[in-house]
Structures are given as structure tokens and as C-alpha cells.
Amino acid sequence: MEFQTLSGSVLAFIGDAVLSLQVREYLVNKGLTKAKALQSRSTDFVSAKAQAAFVKMLIDQDRLSEHEMLMYKRGRNDKSTSIAKNADVLTYRYSTGFEALWGYLYLSEQTQRLSALWLDYQEFVDGR
């Protein structure tokens, strides 16, 4: 697959699935076993607000490479016909960029970088 040519929305589609699996594994490994608790806690991680705040922090701290910024912007700037139920347009765009970055890292098999950012994201969300 030539991930370099994929649209921001396709990268975000993949990134959303990758993040969802990471969150589910993390929560189960933490000992959560009741469906209601799993669902409730997972929303802390997959919310547009949390994703947008985290990626803004990465940008403010200059922690993304030039190419990672391009992939993030590809998702953020993608023309979307839908918006999140619980987020404004700007927050939704930032979170779409976050998911596109996640999808890019996954598809380009940058597992160490994805794992490092995932650990940072866990700390970020757990600390909120």
C-alpha cells in the first residue's frame, strides 16, 4: 500500500481503528472487565477533545518531525462532510489530524514511534 498518497480521511480512518485497539488492550490490561466501565473509560481516550489537546501539546513542544506534521496536516485539512457530536469544528479537525498521524505511523510501520507516542498519550489522558 502506498500510504503516502492516501487522503487524510483514509489515514484517520486507519488511525481511529489502531487507537481504538490500543485503548481497549490498555484498559483490559489495567484490569477493567465490565463492559460499562470499559466503554466509559475508553471515551476519555477516543474523545476529539483529548486527541486535539494532546496533538496541540505535541506541536507546541515541537515534538513532531517535519513529515509527521505533514501527515497531521493532511488529516486536519481534509475536507470532511461530518463533524463530531461533542466537539466544535476546530477541535474535530485537530482530532482528525491526530488520527491521520496515528494511521500514517501504523501504515509506515513506525512501531517504535507509535508506541512512544501511545505511552505519552496514556499519561496525558490518565493525568487529566
Topology:
Blueprint: H1 8-29, H2 35-46, H3 48-60, H4 66-76, H5 89-107, H6 111-126
Helix pairs in contact: 1-2, 1-4, 1-5, 3-5, 4-5
Describe the overall structure:
The protein is mostly helical and 128 residues long. It has a single domain, classed as Ribonuclease III domain (Ribonuclease iii, N-terminal Endonuclease Domain, Chain A, Orthogonal Bundle). It has six helices and no strands. It has helices at 8-29, 35-46, 48-60, 66-76, 89-107, 111-126.
Output the radius of gyration. Answer: 14 Å
What series of H and E elements makes up the topology? HHHHHH
Question: The biggest beta sheet, please?
Answer: none
CATH topology: Ribonuclease iii, N-terminal Endonuclease Domain, Chain A
Number of helices: 6
What structural class results from the helix and strand content?
A: mainly alpha
- Look at the structure and give the CATH class: Mainly Alpha
Number of domains: 1
Q: Provide mean pLDDT, rounded.
A: 93
What percent strand? Answer: under 5%
Helix content: over 70%
- Mass-distribution shape: globular
Distance between the termini: 37 Å
CATH superfamily: Ribonuclease III domain
What's the architecture, going by CATH?
Orthogonal Bundle
| Low-pLDDT residue intervals, each spanning 5 or more residues | none
**Would you count the extended β strands for me?**
0
